[in-house]
Amino acid sequence: AETAQFAAAGSSKAWAFYDASIDPHRPERLSLMGELREAITQGHLELYYQPKLTLATRHLEGVEALVRWNHPQRGLISPDVFIAMAEDTGNIQHLTRWVLGAAVTQASRWHEQGLNLSMAVNLSAHDLSDVDLPRYLADLTDLHRLPHALLTLEITERAVIGEFESALRVLQQLGEHGFQIAIDDFGVGQSSLSYLHRLPVDELKIDQSFVKHLIDDVDDRVIVRSIVELSHNLGYKVTAEGVEDEGTLHYLSSIACDHAQGFFVARPMQARALHDFVATQIDS
Ligand code: C2E
Ligand code: CA
Ligand code: CA
Ligand code: CA
After folding, report:
1. pLDDT in tens, 35-44
2. How far is the CA of 66 from the centre of ligand 1 (A)?
3. Distance 147 CA to ligand 3 centre (A)
């Protein structure tokens, strides 16, 4: 029997009921894995888009693409579950390329419609050992006539730490093509700043764990303020993730944080819902 719970392991994700019965250590994981390839070809994967706000102007800067698996029997499966599976079983390249294809197609559609939105896509550690990725992305974006600067690639500190030199080469090439590079979940990784500064970074995204309770927690405020200052001193833009209330948004504005993302701004949504969101932005 399936036990749909309100949240995936650890973090509360109030926007959807995930199937929490998928234990990564159980055999059914293998059958699910076999299904993932099929899911991609059968169109059971879908991208949701979470808006990112520019705090100074309150304008929509762009969106982050977040993948969902609409499983015919199990319902919505969290990327936290199947991304890790895809990594472990060598299917991540296939998945990443599907995500990139869908995200770039959507971004170029919005671009044609005159919406000037950036598109951010999450990469996993394995993607940074894919030496063909920069060429692949350049061809893909050119085919869809998407300006390279509108595409941001989000990577975690963890993703570069293992094979630093080869990841560095891939990131340098992505940077040379004019794609933007963001460090995701900043602050919870273990990389040193000297390593980080060798990467062609454009943006730091402050992990939600520091943002969530900053209104009640003076330590979190000190950390967030310090990361904003550090980012600006290094010439990076900075985004706060996990903004869940107005007070937090207000505080972030007051410390000159560049961008904000979180349920208070908007939840991840389907492409057609984003049009309505943009319309309400313009009205207000
Ligand atoms: P992430 O990149 O850090 O994405 C942010 C996650 O936090 C998303 O969960 C989003 O729905 C959730 N979130 C956003 N705002 C709030 C908020 O205010 N409060 C709370 N509690 N949560 C918020 P999601 O979509 O379940 O994705 C989980 C992770 O899965 C992502 O974390 C990312 O690491 C990974 N992921 C998602 N899509 C992809 C993808 O296409 N490729 C790869 N490689 N990884 C992906
Ligand atoms: Ca991300
Ligand atoms: Ca750059
Ligand atoms: Ca994040």
Report:
1. 888 888 888 9
2. 6
3. 14
